[in-house]
Amino acid sequence: MRNPSSKSGKQGAATIEASKTTPCCSKVGLKRGPWTPEEDGLLSAYINREGEGRWRTLPKRAGLLRCGKSCRLRWMNYLRPSVKRGRIAPDEEDLILRLHRLLGNRWSLIAGRIPGRTDNEIKNYWNTHISKKLIGQGIDPRTHKPLDPAPLKLASSSKPKDIDGHNCEPSPVISAGEEISSSSQVVVTAKDKEIARFEDHVEHNADHAPSTVYLDVMVTGCDDGHGMSNDEEDLNCYGGDDVFSSFLNSLITEEAFPVHNGDSAIASSASVIAFTASSSALPLRSDCGSGMMSSAAALDENKTGNSQA
DNA sequence: AACTGCAGCAACCGCGCGCAG
DNA sequence: GCTGCGCGCGGTTGCTGCAGT
User: Fold this and answer.
1) Where on the tree of life does the source sit, at the highest rank (predicted)?
2) Residues A72, A117: Cα–Cα separation, whole Å
């Protein structure tokens, strides 16, 4: 933990210049910057006693000179008992990569699928580790596609490496090069067409509730990474999330993290297709997760993340 | 030993969504 | 339908600690 007594640039300056900025909530007289052990203790004790929620009024009730947002963030990212501290394991890293390829920068969703990890932690890890590795490999960390399309044709001669630097077959999305004719690539191309059809379907039905619902569910899943126990929420997600859960779980279990394995990567693609096909017919609830984006936005994001040319 | 540069990560900010009145 | 409030999310900032010189 950072030294609480240290002066912080942005944070300290913001305190000084509180009147200049437009605070999200009244910060006049509120403490900012690093948390002290005493504050942590107060917050933990209060939440253990009274439970989470009502963040706006929590600081006052808990005797803290912090804004509710700050308390929530501290609890979610650091104090929660379920938060796992320590280094991200290679399998977790692989799962993050996988989920990011599927979900994009939906850190809370990704975090919800990795027990004990927070969205902030995953986001940080992505930006500081994985993103750089991918860039180093010539892969756009945002789209998971080659930064320069040209090297695609070299894929067969120089195998790409996974994030750990191991040799591996190109992952389907990354290598969605339609011109490549290896057997695995043929399958990938078919997958891409399937996804394109799915997107097309969504686009044409953007105004209709069913598509809205299933797209939202696909994008949001169950936001169980925040404000609740991961394990419990995984189990308690209502029926509609089952499809999404099993789909995401399939990424975890079926593939067992072999990014390097082209076949399993294809299996993942098949899961995408299977999921999109099956979920389109299901009357799923769509209110899982408070940060849910609109279907249109989801569509845009989905296209950006999965089939950007 | 002192200095510099960089990586890691905790914390802040603004925005958007859901909901109640 | 409109408005305000509470909350959650993603992007960004900047301090800390460590490695390299």
Assistant:
1) Eukaryota
2) 16
H or E segment to which residue A146 belongs = strand A145-146
**Phi and psi for A167 in degrees, rounded to 5?**
-65, 145
**Vertex A287, ends A282 and A293: CA angle to 5°?**
100
For A130, residues 6+ apart whose C-beta sits below 8 A from its C-beta are: A93, A96, A97, A100, A141, A163
Query: Is the shortest CB-to-strand distance from A33 to strand B under 7 Å?
Result: yes
Residues β-bridged to residue A140: A145
How many alpha carbons fall within 13 Å on the CB side of residue A306? 26
Q: A206: Cβ under 7 Å from strand B?
A: no
Per-10-residue mean pLDDT for chain A, 309 residues long? 34 33 53 84 86 82 85 85 79 83 81 83 84 77 68 37 39 34 33 41 39 36 36 36 57 46 37 36 31 33 34
Domain with CATH 1.10.10.60 in chain A: 9-79
Closest Cα to residue A96, out of A72, A53, A124, A126?
A126
Nucleotide showing the shortest C1' distance to residue A4 CA: C15
Q: CB of A304 under 7 A from strand C?
A: no
Strand C contact at CB of residue A36, distance < 7 A: no
A21 touches strand B (CB under 7 A): yes
DSSP A260: T
Residue–nucleotide distance: A293 CA to B16 C1' (Å):
9
Class of domain A9-79: mainly alpha
